[in-house]
Amino acid sequence: MSFFGFEQQTDLENEKRKFLEGGLSGASQDDVAVFTWGEDSYDGLGDALQEGGDELNDETFGISGPVGKDFDFSGTSLPEHEKPAPSEHAQASQASQQVQQSSQSAQRTHASHLDAVWSNKSPFSVLPRSSGPFRTHDHLGDSASKSSLLAPGTSQSTSAHKPASLSLGADLHQGVHTLEEIEREMLAAAAAQHQQQLQQRQREEEEQLRLQQAQQQLEQLQLQQQLLHQQQSQAQMPAHGLLQSPSRTHAPPRQVPGPQHAAATPPPRMHPHSQSPRFHQQQQQHQIHLLQMQQQQQQRQLLELQEQRERQQQRQLLELQEQLRLEEMERQQQQHRLQQQQMNAGVNELMQSHLIHQRLNSGGLSPAFDSRARRVGRQSPLMTPPIQVDVPFAQNMQYLPQNIQMQQRLLAEMAQAEFLNTLQSAGLPERETRESREVQEILRVEAMRKIMEAERMEEKRKRRLDKIAHMSRYNDLMTQSDKDFITRIQVSQLVTQDPYADDFYAQVYGAILRSRMGLPTSEDRVLKFGSGGGVGLGLGQKVPGRRQSAMQRMEAQVERIVNNARLREKEKSSLNNLQGALGRTAGRSYKAAPRQLLQVDSNNVSTSPAVSHASAAHISKSDAARAQEEGEGAAREAAKIGREALRNTADSTGLVHRDPLTHREALVKLEQLYDLVLDLEQRRRDQPNPEDIEDFEQWTQECSTLIDQLFDQLLVSVPLEISTPHPFISLITPIKGKKLLPRVARLLDNDRMQILLTLLVACFSQLDVVIQAPMLDTLEETREIKDLESQTQAFLGSVVQSILPVIAKAQMRLVTGLFGLLLDRNDIVAIARTRPGIALLTLFLSRAEVILQNVANGSEVDEAPTPDELQSWNMLYNHLFELLRPHLPLLFPSVRLSMLSGVNFTSIPNSDVIDQPVWQFFASLACSANDTQQQVLVGGLRDVVLENVTTATKGMGLESEERRRLRLANVNLFLHALGLDSSQIVI
Amino acid sequence: MDSASNGIQEPFDLIRLSLSERVFVKLRGDRELTGVLHAYDGHMNLILSDVEETIMIVDQVEGVSEGHTTVNIAKRKMEMLFVRGDGVILVSPPSRG
User: Fold this and answer.
1) DSSP A2
2) pLDDT in tens, B25-49
3) What proportions of chain A, in percent to the nearest 5, are helix, strand and coil?
4) Which of A501, A602, A748, A814 has the most CB atoms around it within 10 Å of its CB?
5) Between chains, do B42 and A591 touch, taking CB under 8 Å as contact?
6) Cβ neighbours for A3, distance < 8 A, ≥ 6 positions apart
7) Is the pLDDT score of A736 beyond 70?
8) Between vectors from CA B38 to CA A533 and to CA A625, what angle results, nearest 5°?
9) Is residue B2 part of a domain?
10) SS3 of A11, please?
């Protein structure tokens, strides 16, 4: 357990020094100073490194998993943007290295490998060590390959630029260079430029301080520069002592060695494989004990360190002055070298590679900084973001924060300014300068674009990671059994007696969707259980996967619940379970109001109480009771009607009038009708196999009984004169009554529909949409108008649509009969002014016309009307024509509106649309008209036609081509029926 | 007509009659709604369409005796509305006429 002692950190220093001294290869290390610090504090413990007893470290401290910071009590977490990016990696990497060192006795054999890690300048090279289980990465190749391996994952644009930087490296040195070396050079150049920039502004330190205050993002960058100074001075003053990071002035001192931090036990439930906390309980207790010891140690250490730090700070300030001077000298040398490079390599490549390496390095200023930055990171563990340890992606996140982006941008700009300066001072020919400047400009734009793009991407990723990190706070708060418990509760609320009906809309919608997508309309998506209960599954899932397995889990859960419920049901059915049940309510209050556990229903005592507890039972039960009562009611009603009829025939004074249905009565009856219709529709879905004769027989029987009942309750067969409006008309007055009709029409046979149609025609003027239709002749928009409008639409869409097939199949006799009835019983002029009326008249006229055409063509001979029928039809037609003759233009809603409002009818908004049915009516009227009637029609509608054609052709008052075409089409519809065309009209 | 022959057994059966009809809903917080009722459940959650909400804002003027309050009425209209049942005081058909 060597890394429990904090001195171990100095061991690490020592190790590191050894590596660096031993493994320095001149070419790659030329601008890296020899590190000899740490000697003062070196207490020789490293020599006596305790090697044994480490086998269980990983298991104990969960090194392979993410590390929680639950026991990181010392720190106030830093704001997000202040997170020092490279140091975290450094820390993590060191942690891994220390683990390696302590667990591997043959350190020297790994020296070269470790050295490569130490001297690797790209912080990305340490990524895998901190991100994954460390041991798996032990044998990664040299750092160059690592960085090239990892770079694409971190920044996508990097890989694209890689060739450029490689070619640059070859140009410069005429030798084979590793990517690492090239990187280092480029970074050195970048750093040098930056330094020069600062140099030009008089005193560097003042500038830094100012920047420090102004820009938090620059802070990190400066820290690294200061580190560089320090290290340089340390190289000259070997006996300097402890590493004194100026960063300590910013970061609260807490020297926790890496491994300890990394090995901190995850909080109980954060343990990677803790599905059940009990499983690990023992281990945890042990860990907690250890952690408490650690904390005590840490606190002691902290106090000591604080004192140390204060002393060091003062020393440091003095040293800084010296360091700065030294560093400036070196900068000038670098600057000189850089200029040569620029001349050689050309602006283009250099620029690009700069950008790459700035990004690659993610804020690392110069290659030499990285190793130091790592150390800084280790010394200020507090700067570790609180979230990082928990999140698998956190390692990437460190490269994303804004300060890095700012640095990148700053550096890019500085580099550009630098290039401009050097180019000018180099005294290139003017033309070349200009050209290169243009090239530069293009490149600059390009580079900026790429930077922005990369930043956007990074921003996006950052947001995502932030979200994941945010959510991961709650990871593993619940165990699997907790979750199962919740699922059970949720599922138990979904189980119903009739899963299909309870999930009806989703089921039907899903079926429609599937058929539209061309998928086979599979079975109902319902989970059914033996007991008759089930769960509707809603819409089908397109993507299998997590959801699928969740479904299966739920299935198992539900099975269990159902079985349990069945057992309980059994218990319940025994009476002793009801002991003390009086006044108690059933536990489940989600379906409806809490109901009494003991329910005594006076209406049907026979029903067992257990049934009434079943979730959906109370509805079906009440429905059944209602149906029963309805039956009785209907019978009573029928008897009464029969008596009345008898009485009527007896005294032959006519029919006895009854009060019409009140609105509420109509609504009640409608609900009953809806129940019937729903029941019938469900039965039609449950149609048994026709080959199963017995079942099918029974099913047919039941259905026909229900349909009879339905027809009875529609009150269609009640005598016409029983009330005004007729009960059936009252039934279709509410909008849901109108909407019920198409559903009823599907169930009723043709004969019954003809009866229904006859009744409708006979009582047409009693319809609300006909009576109130004049109200629609207004341009106002009140609630009433809107409601009436929707009623009218519903009538046209539902009622007319459901009688349409009846009329379309009707023979001449029926058409004549209905037409006669319509003319006889209604004020045809009033009806013709309504949209439903126009629709009905058009229906009859066009059906008659079709029959006549068929006769003329000789087809459909069996439908051929008798001469009598033809004659009566002609008579009726003439009658209609004569009735309408004085009012022809008034049938147009636009004309009526213009009379009311004083506006010309052509200027009525939307006039063409509202007039269209009337034009259709006139067209069908004109078809059947004889010559005289046609002349009358033309004469009566002359003004309207002319006005419409004029405005349509001249475009007066018509904004759009669309309207003009519609208007002409309307007129032509009528004119074509007369054998004319609007083009013949000369204006 | 007695309630049995109506098939009305529980209060919700009355609300059922108003399905797809215009209803008047009184809510807590001096609010009223009129709209077409599309659905309801046991919590009296409602789904209404074509809704007009009327909000009564009672301003008690300082220094004026009790009862001298000004009532401002704010109205707004909504296409479709989900009303949470816990705010519902009353559901009724709108007064006719």
Assistant:
1) G
2) 999 999 999 999 999 998 999 999 9
3) 70, 0, 25
4) A748
5) yes
6) A98, A99, A102, A257, A259, A260, A263
7) yes
8) 50
9) no
10) helix
Return the structure tokens found at B23.
């209803």
Query: Mapping DSSP to helix (H, G, I), strand (E, B) and coil, where does residue A458 land?
Result: helix
pLDDT tens string A780-802? 888 888 889 999 999 999 999 99
Residues spanned by the domain of B55 = 13-91
Residue A977, pLDDT score: 85
Domain spans of chain A?
661-809, 813-886, 888-986
Distance, in Å, from the CA atom of A463 to the CA atom of A766, rounded to the nearest integer, reads 66
Measured distance CA(A604)–CA(A613) in Å, rounded = 15
Quote the minimal CA–CA distance from B67 to chain A in Å.
33
Provide, as residue numbers in chain B, all residues whose Cβ is less than 8 Å from the Cβ of A739: 20
Q: Is residue B8 part of a domain?
A: no
A218-236 and A204-214 helices cross at what angle (nearest 10)?
150
Instruction: Tell me the ipTM for this assembly.
Output: 0.88
Residue B4 covered by a domain: no
% of chain A surpassing 90 pLDDT: 13
Smallest CA–CA distance, residue A704 to chain B, in Å, is 23
DSSP state of A140: -
Is B20 in contact with A668 (Cβ distance < 8 A)?
no
Minimal Cα–Cα distance from B58 to chain A, Å?
Answer: 27
Q: pTM of this prediction?
A: 0.50
Place of tokens 């269209």: A916
A663 contact residues in B (CB cutoff 8 A): 93, 96
List, as ranges, residues 19-78 from B with C-beta within 8 Å of A: 19-22, 42, 50, 52
What distance in Å separates the CA atoms of residue A808 and residue A409, rounded to the nearest whole number?
A: 77
Question: In this predicted model, what pLDDT tens digit does every residue of A346-356 receive, in sequence order?
Answer: 545 545 555 55
The domain total for chain B is: 1
- Exposure class string for A209-244: b at 16+ Cβ within 10 A, else e: eebeeeeebbbbbbbbbbbbbbbbbbbeeeebebbb
Query: In degrees rounded to 5, what are phi and psi of residue A656?
Result: -85, 130
| Length of chain A as a residue count | 987
Q: What pLDDT, in 10s, does the model give residues A61-95?
A: 555 555 555 555 554 444 444 444 444 444 544 54
Side chain identity at residue A385, one-letter code: P
Using a CB-CB distance cutoff of 8 angstroms, which residues of chain B are in contact with residue A593?
A: 42
Partners of residue B4 in chain A, C-beta under 8 Å: 629
Place of tokens 């006795």: A105
- CATH number for the domain that contains residue B83: 2.30.30.100
B13 neighbors B42 (Cβ within 8 angstroms): no
Q: What percent of chain B has pLDDT over 90?
A: 61
In a domain, B68, yes or no: yes
